[in-house]
């Protein structure tokens, strides 16, 4: 009985110290999030436009619902990808679409802006592997 | 007592009108992002992508109850189904209950109609029903 405890304890210790990074909600390897509109280099007149968010090989689902192969959109504006092992922050540069929206009306001031899409799971944390789009640059005139 | 009974009967009658139980969000706008009405698609027997556009409303998988959401249904070569029942599931009524927002569609050559219809968590159209314009495409 005693000898069986030692390998069990060792196994537990290995598991316990496993990095938290790998514990994200799994996403299919071919999941693909992308901008239907605008594209890289699009020039937008007037500052108000609909961002159309595309997703392949995964489904859209509101926040708080744990189901396989789903997530909800986040739009990153003028910022880098956040740490991918934590919930995505929620602020003017990180817009959350936790109600399952696939389009959003955005208003930006004149100038160059970067946009990037990042999918989040039921707790707004990126998946494993993370599902994010190319970062695109648009110009608002 | 009679007044109450009469009011109750009226209420029941209104409730029994042809409509699903889930209210439609205000200003929900459903459209087919691509193809466009009148599009000629040179498919050469291969599937082509259909984009589902939705504004002022969200997508949720089937069986998920979340306000102002629904999931997509693509109607192919058919009219809108009865608005107070579960949308049928067959080759003319494709369900996207996993929350998909686009699909690859293979159609034989010829003229076809496409139309999107939102369903609630139980595949019943909203009240009032949310559907896109019915478009006609030619597949070559």
Tell me what the structure shows.
The complex is a heterodimer of chains A (about 140) and B (about 140). Chain A is mainly β and about 140 residues long. Chain A is about 10% helix and about 35% strand. Mean pLDDT of chain A is about 90; it is low at about 15-20. With about 140 residues, chain B is mostly beta strands. Chain B contains 1 helix and 9 strands, in the order H-E-E-E-E-E-E-E-E-E. In chain B, strands 2, 4, 5, 6, 8 and 9 form a 6-stranded mixed β-sheet that branches. Chain B has a 3-stranded antiparallel β-sheet with strand order 1-3-7, with no helix packed on it. Classes of the chains: A mainly beta (about 140), B mainly beta (about 140). At the A-B interface, strand 3 and strand 4 of A face strand 3 and strand 4 of B.
Mean pLDDT of chain B: 91
| Percentage of residues in DSSP E strands of chain B | 25-35%
Write down the secondary-structure element order of chain A.
HEEEEEEEEE
Cα gyration radius of chain B (Å): 18 Å
Q: Low-confidence parts of chain B lasting 5 or more residues at pLDDT below 50?
A: 10-16
Shape of chain A: elongated
Largest sheet of chain B: 6 strands, mixed
How many separate helices of chain A? 1
- The total beta strand count of chain B reads 9
> Which structural class best describes the helix and strand composition of chain A?
mainly beta
- Name the helicity range of chain B: 10-25%
Give me the number of helical elements of chain B: 1
Strand coverage percent of chain A: 35-45%
Largest sheet of chain A: 6 strands, mixed
Classify the helix fraction of chain A into a percent range: 10-25%
Our Rg estimate of chain A from Cα atoms comes to: 19 Å
């Amino acid at each position: 009985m005693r000898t069986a405890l030692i390998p069990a304890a060792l196994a537990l210790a290995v598991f316990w110290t496993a990095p938290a990074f790998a514990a994200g909600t799994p996403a299919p390897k071919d999941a693909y999030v992308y901008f239907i509109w605008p594209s890289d280099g699009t020039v937008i007149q007037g500052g108000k436009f609909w961002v159309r968010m595309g997703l392949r090989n995964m489904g859209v689902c509101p926040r708080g619902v744990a189901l396989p192969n789903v997530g909800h959109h986040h739009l990153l504006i003028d910022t880098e990808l956040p740490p991918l092992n934590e919930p995505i922050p929620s602020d003017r540069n990180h817009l959350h679409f936790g109600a399952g929206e696939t389009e959003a009306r955005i208003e930006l001031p004149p100038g160059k802006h970067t946009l990037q899409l990042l999918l989040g799971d039921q707790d707004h944390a990126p998946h494993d592997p993370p599902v994010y789009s190319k970062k695109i640059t648009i110009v608002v005139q | 007592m009679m007044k109450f009974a009469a009011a109750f009967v009226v209420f029941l009658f209104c409730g029994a009108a042809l409509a699903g139980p889930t209210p439609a969000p205000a200003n929900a706008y459903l459209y087919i992002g691509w193809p466009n009405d009148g599009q000629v698609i040179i498919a050469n027997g291969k599937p082509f992508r259909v984009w589902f556009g939705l504004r002022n409303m969200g997508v949720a998988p089937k069986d998920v109850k979340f306000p102002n959401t629904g999931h997509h249904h693509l109607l192919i070569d058919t009219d809108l189904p009865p608005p107070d029942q579960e949308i049928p599931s067959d080759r003319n009524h494709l369900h996207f209950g996993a929350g998909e927002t686009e699909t690859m569609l293979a159609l034989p050559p010829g003229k076809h109609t496409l139309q999107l219809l939102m369903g609630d968590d139980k595949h019943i159209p909203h009240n009032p029903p949310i559907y896109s314009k019915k478009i006609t495409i030619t597949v070559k």
